[in-house]
Amino acid sequence: MKQLIEKILPTDNRKRKWTAIGLTVIVSGLLTLWGIYEIGQYGIALFILTPLFIGAGSTILYGRKKGITKRQAWQIGLLTLTIFTAGLLVFAIEGIICIAMAAPIALLLTWIGSLIGHAIINKTPHNASTTLLLLVGIIPTMAFIEKNNEPALTSVVTSIEINAPPQTVWKNVIEFPQLDKPTEFIFKTGIAYPIDAKIEGTSVGAVRHCNFTTGSFVEPITVWNEPRLLKFDVVEQPAPMKELSFWNIDAPHLHDYFVSKQGQFKLTALPNGKTLLEGTTWYYHNIKPAFYWQLWSNYIIHKIHNRVLTHIKTNAEHAEKKKYRFNTKIKSSFSY
Predict the structure, then answer these.
(1) pTM of the full predicted structure?
(2) Is the pLDDT score of 151 beyond 90?
(3) Which terminus of the chain, N or C, has less C-beta within 10 A?
(4) Cα(73)–Cα(279) distance, rounded to whole angstroms?
(5) Is 259 left (phi over 0), alpha (psi -120 to 50) or beta?
(6) How far apart, in whole angstroms, are the C-alpha atoms of residue 36 and residue 290?
(7) How far is it, in rounded angstroms, from Cα 181 to Cα 20?
């Protein structure tokens, strides 16, 4: 292994740098393609171990038998990561939005990887080849381990206070007309957002269709407690986003990697005549590390909830005002 590396790596610094970068990008790319398309995993192997390898691998290859500073290690690691992500875009493996979401953790771990590579080169250079083999081998091993892990169900709850009684709010919960176009930046990037909702039937067994920009959520009603609680399962769902890219990307993570399982609307009558409306979504995703990707998922779901709840609030309060004006007009007519 040591002899092979020495034969491949040029002695000229410039050529050595680009050879180290090229080898690291090729190995990282092949492991990424294998992990995504063969094993079907978007997890720790991809989002933690691969950037660590990008930082450490490029640093070790460049600095082997010549030394490297921390600044050089970070620079070569960052350049390698940039070329790697550019390859994901050019070869239509990922889109701009997913790469942007992964960027914070990828940058941090590439930097950590470069520090690891720097420490190995400057403190235990005889372990350089072993470290490279270990990093390359642990990526697919972790992908296989992750494949059998069951994802945990997560809930997101968003609430809003509406100046209308529960019965009026209920009518706007079970279905609602088309929403205005969103002003939030997140929905202008390709993230799917709700358009309207229709329902077929009443009571348990009715089927609600919540229509998004990428398709429809099909939601059979499991609890119909008018006007207090509407609960439903999700049996079909569209892609969570349309990737921004130079090409038409249909990445595997757009299908069955973010899964909405259940939802509900809970209406609570308040003493002041208003209604507290709570929207809840239960979901899981097969993307890890969960703590990181849940930050994005929860943020996006809250934005979707807010869009729907605000629309329901506007419609319910408008209906209540019309009802008040109508009743006032009738009373005025009788007074004559």
Answers:
(1) 0.88
(2) no
(3) C
(4) 48
(5) beta
(6) 17
(7) 48
